[in-house]
TrEMBL record:
Highest taxon of the lineage: Bacteria
Kinase found in the keyword field: yes
Keyword hit for Transferase: yes
Region (Disordered): 121-146
GO MF annotations, alphabetized: kinase activity
Protein name: Shikimate kinase
Alphabetically ordered keywords of this record: Kinase, Transferase
UniProt xrefs under InterPro entries: P-loop_NTPase (IPR027417)
Amino acid sequence: MKVIFLFGPQAVGKMTIGEILSKDLELPLLFNHMTLDVIAPFLGWTKKTFELSNQLRKDIFHEVIAQKDNKGLIFTFVWAHDHKEDCEEVERFKRIFTDSGIDVLFVELETTLKERLRRNQSENRLAKKPSKRNVKHSEEELLTSNQKHRLNSLPGEIKEPYYYRLDVTNISAEEAARKIISENQLYLKTGCSE
């Protein structure tokens, strides 16, 4: 089973790159707004929305493991590295897999704020994420979180055995997916318990 945690700031390209990886690796993609946008219309953007979203994700992870014919999954999320609760939640997500003998490949994406603001308005993002269609609000949220939190890790901060960081500022989503696959062959071929 192969499990990829694809993370980085808002509008860095996680979902778009994840879609290409999903197709190329034949792994289902769970991008972060798939769970959030189901709950938010009923509860708004409240603490409970995020709690329920995280619980749903955990339930999905457990079921993926339980069904032995599953190949794994790709999961995208934003990680505030300076926020203790975020770090603890990522660790809980990871432990669901590692406690079952399944290693996780952590892939971190980064780009400039200018490029993220441009990508925030991309057609694919707006089509797949209803809550981002109010572009003005989405941009304000992006800028606020960029000021409040550290959304990329510091050098050497992530100690995972399978970790890859990629600057996607000047490359296409297709090129990024190719690099992720080519630079992580050890994991993709042998790194995970079957």
